């Protein structure tokens, strides 16, 4: 909402400067988003009077005008056909710039020096009118600064009006707010409306079939108007307020809407059939072409303004082309109606059509203001377009109760407690009265508005003297405040006019309230910390993915849901599916970095994925941990060779995670996934429960994404991890007797897995064998093709004694024998 | 070598005086272990000078014997100690010298130890959580795919309400279901409703998480973003409590020297409502590009829980009152760390991730 201060000052005395006013409004809830100075773009333009118009010596279509620009006469070459002696027009003097950026200099035009420029409205940025030079009021003094002469210099407050305050969508409404905040009085526009001729009702009939949606309709009739451009003051104000002037009648309807907040519509009376207005819903087969030139398919619930021939306007949203005011219009039916908010909101939304009118109606317009607005507009139409205002208005009220002020009760003590201030009844009364509410005292203390006996909640100590509900005020709310429906709404009014800044800052008396993280929340943080400690960087990737990921990762939907969750209205196909896995996001992140020549990518993400469940239920949203590594894990350094980021890096991270969370039993089970390398993938089991997977990205997928081979990914379900995590285990005895270490290298066939060898070693080694660590894997050399050597370091100890060499030797012999029998292993 | 007060007596001793004088001279000139060993042999060895004096003692008179014996033993002991300490010093010096030859180029890079980083948004969320845990709050969660009821209706935002902008909402198709009231939550506020539905008051929670709006991404808009919601319901909670709580938060988060401003505003689910600004850290409040000349940065929306909301969850508004607030995590990151573009948070550019 743009509020030019000169306009505003017609309705309230402004005792503050623009910045102070802006601060005051902002502090009371009418946020000022900007304070704009307008009119400055006309620097160097003055009023000029054309003294003489001479033909240009060498150009037929140009003339040379001698122009009095105040104390000096200048010759200005001009091509406009409408120049004539005595005409007063805007002149741009040399050395300045036009609003469109052109600079004006002394220029020779076909042999004649032109020292300045006569201006059209388009050149001034006022309108698109470029056929001739703009003509000004002949009484203006030549040489006067143009902006001053046209009164365009002003300060405009740009207000953010919240949806609950439709009353502030007008100059008068903002003036009311300013008056309340500065202790002034509002001046409503005053005028005497001369009426003539037969009553309007003799030619106009209004019929309302939808009383709930249109409780009131006021029509006025003005005849003998002549359509043309509006006078300057009117166009100037519309422009400053951000609206484009159209013609005098339409401009007046817009002007009054901006002035009073009541949207108006003007019909060409002769285009309305029988002067008969019918407010009803759409009937079968009806269509309407609105003023924006769009032919609209109507919805059965759309409220329409009709004549007996059919729709002529989309009620409260936009007029129809068929009855539009046009240059030939001589008789105007002026509509000033009240439409209820929800219907307008839904119609506007259905047609994706918003107008200044619908914007106001869907927030709530004062139903009591229709007649005054109609009178005001009729008066101004007569002033600007001539004609006669027919006697009387047709004022049809089918729901009179909407015109009555609402009555509310306010418990002053309760209000003070909710705000956290001390507030006396006279103070509260004063604030409400400044907002044009009628206040009387109902009774002392007692019942709540709902009629429930007050429970006598003891007031917090901040309210000095606050006992119970205190005085109860009876408040009549003016009809222009549809937002004030309940006691709490009045509390808000008290708080914001009292001033939030004056409310003392306190903390709740949290008597028995303890803040903490749950075990799961603590463990989630721990998981993230372990990931960071392992060298991974946390990513946050988009929750929506393109559908093609589904087919790329898992064309047969062996692992991913058959039908993932889709958005009905995605921003694009590329963001239309709610991710069922973190993998696409992590792969995209890898791609982003690799494309920027950062080939070593180490990422993790903790985020939710979305899995459809039973029909009609909200999806399951498990929190997953995803990891991705590719490129090198350790870059080549001056001291070490590079280490590739391979399968075993992620497995190492899984080990670290299991250790940090004290997961007692974790393992990998060979398992195939459609998006993983079939021989390099595994399922992760935590305490026997499936927790996710780990493996190398399938080269097919890598190729399709232009990723290098050897991208390693892991995905784990965080709640399974949390479930498998143990509290820190109790103390375990530390050995006091020395351990015996034995190295053991065995040769086995290639297909024997390390897990099998280690399993037998542990089984046979028994409880004295405390640690088994693989320290070498060797192929080639003296080993035969298809053989490998595994070298283990074994640690034996007992808690109660020093082991004898003999015991250890026997144990190792047993291990070797068992390995030989079960796996065909031999000592190396 | 010997106590100072005996110096005179030693020097004037007929047998030891000369030995002592010579010894002192030689010790002063001895610079290495070999020379010290020669001195030891020359004085303490079997044929050493001091040894000789001690051996000749028995030939002296008992009186001389006592004083000579005392001085000679003293000198012997003193010399032994002196030699030991001189040798120790030399050995230490030699070690130092040899260690100095093992000089490292300490300007070489350290060995590669992997280190990772949290995402800036996660760090900020944890920071916010910790501030509120300190104020007695717990952390709650709710689904990102929500029902219209929780996202709008129970938050006092009926279908026809102007602040329910459908264009801002992503709607979700549940496979095999015709439901049209499933959406991506447009804020974290539905968690308020879910918590109050399942918990009797008092309630003190914050709810961090993702939210979604149908915005084409640009420098300040993202269709996916993070919010932290807060809710406190108790007996006697006032607007002043909301002010105090958020002022405490803002100063912890942005700095004790920052000013905090509360402006009345409108939200369908709070009344009275407020927007909260902190003074601009870029210009210190005098007005700049970041704060658009106002000196203030808007950081969150808040208000007293609307009695209609309490009605939806079955709390008695006559007994309980409360406040709620919500803030955008990305916005805080933009303001606090000067990140210029909200899209950067989801690019996962390692050059950015590694900065935090």
Defining traits:
heterodimer; A: 828 residues; alpha+beta; Phenylalanyl-tRNA Synthetase, Chain B, domain 1; OB fold (Dihydrolipoamide Acetyltransferase, E2P); Phenylalanyl-tRNA Synthetase, Chain B, domain 3; 6 domains; 7-stranded mixed sheet; 6-stranded mixed sheet; 44 strands; 25% helix; 29% strand; elongated; B: 356 residues; BirA Bifunctional Protein, domain 2; 2 domains; two-stranded antiparallel sheet
Structure description:
- The complex is a heterodimer of chains A (828) and B (356).
- Chain A has 20 helices and 44 strands.
- Chain A is of the alpha+beta class.
- Chain A has six domains: 2-33 and 158-182, Phenylalanyl-tRNA Synthetase, Chain B, domain 1 (2-Layer Sandwich); 40-149, Nucleic acid-binding proteins (OB fold (Dihydrolipoamide Acetyltransferase, E2P)), CATH 2.40.50.140; 195-403, Phenylalanyl-tRNA Synthetase, Chain B, domain 3, CATH 3.50.40.10; 406-502, Phenylalanyl-tRNA Synthetase, Chain B, domain 1, CATH 3.30.56; 519-724, BirA Bifunctional Protein, domain 2 (2-Layer Sandwich), CATH 3.30.930.10; 740-827, 2-Layer Sandwich (Alpha-Beta Plaits), CATH 3.30.70.380.
- In chain A, the strands form twelve sheets. In chain A, strands 29-33-34-40-39-38-37 form a seven-stranded mixed beta sheet, with helices on both faces. In chain A, strands 13, 15, 16, 23, 24 and 25 form a six-stranded mixed beta sheet that branches.
- In chain A, strand 37 and strand 38 form a beta hairpin.
- The longest helix of chain A has 19 residues, at 805-823.
- In chain B, a hairpin with a 2-residue loop joins strand 7 (260-267) and strand 8.
- Chain B has helices at residues 7-12, 16-29, 33-44, 49-55, 62-100, 120-134, 148-151, 190-198, 239-254, 307-313, 329-337, 344-347, 350-353, and strands spanning 138-139, 145-147, 172-173, 182-184, 203-212, 224-234, 260-267, 270-279, 296-305, 321-328.
- Chain B folds into two domains: 4-100; 120-144 and 186-353, 2-Layer Sandwich (BirA Bifunctional Protein, domain 2), CATH 3.30.930.10.
- Chain B has 13 helices and ten strands.
- In chain B, helix 4 (49-55) packs antiparallel against helix 5 (62-100) and helix 6 crosses helix 11.
- The longest helix of chain B is centred in the N-terminal third of the chain and has 39 residues, at 62-100.
């Amino acid at each position: 909402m743009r509020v030019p201060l000169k306009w505003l000052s017609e309705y309230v005395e402004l005792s503050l400067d623009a910045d102070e006013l802006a601060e005051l409004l902002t502090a009371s809830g009418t946020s000022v988003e900007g304070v704009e100075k307008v009119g400055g773009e006309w620097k160097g333009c003055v009023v000029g009077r054309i003294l003489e118009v001479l033909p240009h010596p060498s150009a037929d279509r140009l003339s040379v005008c001698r122009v009095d620009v105040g104390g000096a006469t200048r010759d200005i070459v001009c091509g406009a056909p409408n120049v004539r002696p005595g005409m007063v027009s805007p002149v741009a003097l040399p050395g300045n710039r036009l609003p469109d950026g052109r600079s004006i200099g002394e220029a020779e035009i076909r042999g004649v020096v032109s020292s300045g420029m006569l201006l059209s409205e388009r050149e001034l940025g006022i309108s698109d009118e470029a056929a001739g030079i703009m003509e000004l009021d002949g009484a203006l003094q030549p040489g006067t600064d143009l902006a001053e002469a046209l009164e365009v210099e002003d300060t405009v407050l740009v207000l953010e009006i919240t949806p609950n305050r439709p009353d502030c969508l007008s100059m008068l409404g903002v003036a009311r707010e300013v008056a309340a905040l500065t202790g002034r009085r509002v001046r409503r526009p005053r005028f005497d409306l001369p009426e003539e001729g037969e009553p309007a009702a003799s030619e106009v009939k209004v019929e309302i079939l939808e009383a709930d949606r249109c409780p009131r309709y006021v029509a006025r009739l003005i005849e003998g108007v002549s359509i043309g451009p509006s006078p300057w003051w009117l166009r100037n104000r519309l422009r400053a307020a951000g609206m484009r002037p159209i013609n005098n009648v339409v401009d007046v309807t817009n002007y009054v809407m901006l002035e009073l907040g009541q949207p108006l519509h003007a019909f060409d009376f002769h285009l309305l059939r029988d002067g008969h207005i019918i407010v009803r819903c759409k009937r079968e087969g009806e269509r309407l072409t609105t003023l924006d030139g769009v032919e609209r398919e109507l919805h059965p619930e759309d409220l329409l303004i009709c004549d007996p021939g059919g729709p002529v306007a989309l009620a409260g949203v936009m007029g129809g082309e068929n009855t539009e005011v046009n240059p030939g219009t001589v008789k105007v039916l002026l509509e000033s109606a009240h439409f209820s908010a929800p219907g307008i909101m839904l119609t506007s939304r259905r047609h994706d059509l918003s107008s200044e009118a619908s914007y106001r109606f869907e927030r709530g317009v004062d139903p009591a203001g229709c007649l005054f607005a109609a009178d005001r507009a009729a008066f101004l139409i007569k002033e600007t377009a001539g004609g006669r205002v027919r006697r009387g208005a047709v004022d049809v009220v089918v729901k009179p109760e909407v015109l009555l002020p609402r009555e509310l009760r306010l418990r002053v003590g309760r209000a003070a407690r909710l705000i956290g201030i001390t507030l006396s009844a006279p103070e509260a009364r004063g604030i409400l009265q400044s907002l044009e509410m009628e206040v009387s005292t109902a009774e002392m203390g007692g019942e709540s508005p709902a009629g429930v006996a007050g429970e006598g909640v003891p007031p917090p100590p901040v309210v000095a003297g606050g006992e119970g509900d205190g005085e109860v005020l009876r408040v009549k709310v003016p009809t222009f405040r549809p937002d004030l429906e309940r006691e709490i709404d009045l509390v808000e009014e008290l708080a914001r006019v009292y001033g939030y800044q004056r409310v003392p800052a306190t903390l709740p008396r949290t008597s028995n309230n303890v803040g903490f993280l749950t075990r799961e929340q603590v463990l989630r943080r721990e998981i993230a910390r372990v990931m960071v400690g392992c060298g991974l960087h946390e990513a946050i990737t988009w929750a929506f993915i393109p559908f093609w990921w589904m087919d790329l990762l898992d064309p047969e939907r062996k692992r991913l849901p058959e039908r993932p969750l889709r958005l009905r209205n995605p921003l694009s196909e590329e963001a239309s599916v709610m991710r069922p896995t973190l993998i696409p996001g992590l792969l995209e992140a890898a791609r982003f970095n690799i494309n920027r020549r950062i080939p070593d990518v180490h990422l993790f993400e903790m985020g939710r994925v979305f899995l459809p469940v039973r029909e009609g239920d909200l999806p399951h949203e498990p929190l997953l941990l995803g990891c991705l590594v590719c490129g090198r894990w350790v870059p080549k350094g001056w001291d070490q060779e590079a280490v590739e980021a391979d399968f075993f890096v992620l497995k190492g991270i899984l080990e670290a995670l299991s250790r940090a969370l004290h997961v007692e039993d974790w393992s990998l089970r060979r398992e195939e996934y459609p998006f993983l390398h079939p021989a390099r993938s595994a399922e992760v089991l935590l305490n026997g429960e499936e927790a996710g997977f780990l493996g190398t990205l399938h080269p097919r997928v890598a190729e399709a994404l232009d990723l290098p081979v050897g991208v390693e990914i892991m995905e784990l379900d965080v709640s399974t991890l949390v479930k498998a995590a143990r509290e820190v285990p109790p103390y375990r005895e530390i050995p006091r007797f020395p351990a015996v270490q034995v190295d053991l290298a065995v040769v086995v066939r290639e297909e024997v897995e390390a897990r099998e060898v280690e399993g037998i070693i542990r089984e046979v080694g028994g409880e004295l064998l405390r640690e088994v660590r693989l320290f070498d894997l060797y192929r080639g050399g003296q080993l035969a093709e298809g053989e490998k050597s595994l070298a283990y370091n074994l640690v034996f100890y007992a808690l109660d004694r020093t082991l004898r060499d003999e015991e250890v030797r026997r144990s190792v012999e047993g291990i070797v024998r068992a390995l030989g029998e079960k796996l065909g292993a031999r000592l190396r | 070598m010997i106590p100072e007060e005996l110096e005179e007596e030693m020097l004037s001793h007929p047998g030891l005086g000369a030995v002592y004088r010579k010894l002192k001279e030689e010790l002063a000139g001895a610079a290495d272990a070999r020379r010290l060993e020669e001195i030891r042999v020359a004085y303490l060895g079997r044929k050493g000078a001091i040894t000789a004096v001690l051996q000749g003692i028995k030939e002296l008179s008992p009186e001389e014997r006592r004083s000579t014996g005392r001085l000679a033993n003293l000198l012997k002991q003193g010399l032994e100690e002196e030699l030991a300490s001189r040798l120790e010093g030399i050995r230490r010096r030699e070690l130092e010298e040899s260690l100095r030859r093992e000089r490292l180029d300490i300007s070489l890079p350290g060995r590669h130890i992997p280190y990772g980083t949290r995402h800036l948004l996660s760090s900020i969320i944890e920071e916010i959580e910790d501030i509120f845990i300190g104020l007695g709050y717990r952390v709650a969660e709710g689904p990102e795919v929500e029902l219209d009821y929780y996202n709008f209706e129970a938050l006092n935002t009926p279908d026809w309400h102007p602040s329910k902008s459908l264009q801002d909402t992503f709607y979700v198709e549940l496979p095999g279901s015709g439901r049209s009231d499933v959406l991506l939550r447009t804020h974290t506020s539905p968690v308020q409703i879910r918590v109050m539905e399942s918990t009797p008051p008092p309630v003190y929670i914050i709810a961090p998480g993702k939210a979604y709006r149908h915005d084409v991404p640009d420098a300040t808009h993202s269709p996916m973003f993070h919010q932290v919601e807060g809710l406190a319901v108790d007996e006697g909670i006032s607007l002043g409590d909301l002010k105090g709580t958020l002022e405490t938060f803002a100063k912890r988060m942005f700095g004790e020297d920052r000013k905090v401003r509360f402006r009345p505003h409108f939200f369908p689910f709070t009344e009275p409502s407020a927007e909260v600004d902190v003074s601009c850290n870029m210009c210190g409040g005098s007005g700049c590009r970041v704060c658009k000349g106002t000196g203030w940065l808007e950081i969150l929306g808040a208000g007293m829980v609307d009695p209609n909301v309490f009605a939806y969850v079955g709390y008695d508004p006559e007994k309980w009152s409360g406040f709620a607030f919500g803030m955008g995590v990305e916005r805080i990151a933009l303001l606090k760390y000067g990140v210029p573009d909200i899209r950067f948070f989801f690019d996962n550019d390692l050059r950015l991730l590694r900065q935090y």
